[in-house]
Amino acid sequence: MSDYAIKTVNLTKRYSGLWSKTPVEAVKKLNLEVHRGEIFGFLGPNGAGKTTTIKVLLGIIYPTEGEAYVLGKPAGDPSNHYNLSYLPENPYFYDYMTGEEILTFYARLFGIPEPDRTKRVRELLDRVGLSRAANQPIRTYSKGMQQRIGLAQCLLNDPQLLILDEPTAGLDPIAHIDIRDMILDLRAQGKTLFISSHQLSDVERVCDRVAILNRGEMVKLGKLEELLSGGHVELIAEKVNEGVLEPIRNLGGRASLHDGRLIVEQPDDGTIDRVIDLVRSSGGHVISVKPYRRTLEDLFVETIQGGNRQ
Q1: In the chain, N or C: fewer CB atoms in 10 Å?
Q2: Which pLDDT does position 18 carry in this prediction?
Q3: CB–CB of 133/152 below 8 Å?
Q4: pLDDT of residue 310
């Protein structure tokens, strides 16, 4: 258990139906293992059970069946409060307070004494790029600045585990990059990050492994490089005759020919060279060869719409 920052065993959460006697299963027998020191992406469409799972991990609600462990202890264990942090999608702060005041307030709640408290607050304001706005009321902060102060709050207790819900939602491109860099820097420090997000391009850039939920069930789980393998290469050629179509298709490619213009979508398995040879031997002229890497968005759509399971 000590090897995992998060572990669930047949985790199930049911809610009583509002309009019928049939209970609603928000999470169904979820088995999840998040290794210490990794960035883990927790994905799924709206209503997939992500928020319910996070609430169980934080000890806000209790599972109907199964078990959940956080940092080797049962979810909700009070001794874990100093070792984990949570950043909701829309963090709320007392907006009449300044950035420095709100961090000082929460540092007091964590019991951080002076002079360490003031030093810690100033270091974090600098780290998230808010030193110049430290004395401005939070009501004047932009969405990106509020996300930054939220992340600074999460780091006050120097947690082992951070659970981040949509950490880059609604941010401008510069803020996106800054937050992503901070997330990678935290992993380099040995932190574990559990990220729930619809920003799939961000997840693809930073996460080591991902899980995809749909209707409360795990439908995909694995390392990103393994899940995203299987791209393709697109070839376009002209002055090609129909005789090359069957040999190309025998190599596993999808080929179409219109008025001598050939378009081939070939698996990225090294056979594209043989396709090029076939085109040239038939007198055709290759115009372009472009590799296309499979994206996390492709995987997500295929998994959810296709109903695939891990």
Answers
A1: N
A2: 66
A3: no
A4: 52
Which of 273, 305, 308 is CA-nearest to residue 289?
A: 273
For 146, the 3-state DSSP assignment is helix
Q: Left if phi > 0, otherwise alpha if psi is -120 to 50, otherwise beta: which for 253? A: beta
Q: Which residues does 186 contact at the CB level (< 8 Å), separation at least 6?
A: 155, 162, 193
Nearest to 240 by CA among 258, 219, 213: 258
Do 236 and 215 share a structural domain?
no
pLDDT at 270: 84
Last residue of a domain, one of 179, 197, 227: 227
Q: Please give the pLDDT value at position 307.
A: 56
Across the 310 residues of the chain, what is the mean pLDDT of every consecutive 10-residue run? 87 82 89 96 94 95 95 92 89 92 94 93 93 95 89 94 89 83 92 94 93 94 88 91 91 90 89 93 93 88 73
Going along 159-309, which residue ranges are E strands?
A: 161-165, 192-196, 209-214, 217-223, 232-238, 254-258, 261-267, 285-292
Are 187 and 254 found together in one domain? Answer: no
Cβ pair 161, 5 in contact under 8 A: yes
94 to 98, 99, 130, 183: CA distances (angstroms): 9, 10, 17, 25
Contacts of 75 (CB under 8 A, 6+ apart): 56, 57, 58, 59, 68, 69
Using alpha carbons, list the distances in angstroms from residue 223 to 34, 35, 75, 107, 228: 12, 12, 25, 36, 9
Token pair listed for 96: 């009449």
Extract the tokens encoding 299. Answer: 């995987």
Q: Name the phi and psi angles at 4, rounded to 5.
A: -115, 135
Predicted pLDDT of residue 294: 84
Domain range enclosing 90: 4-227
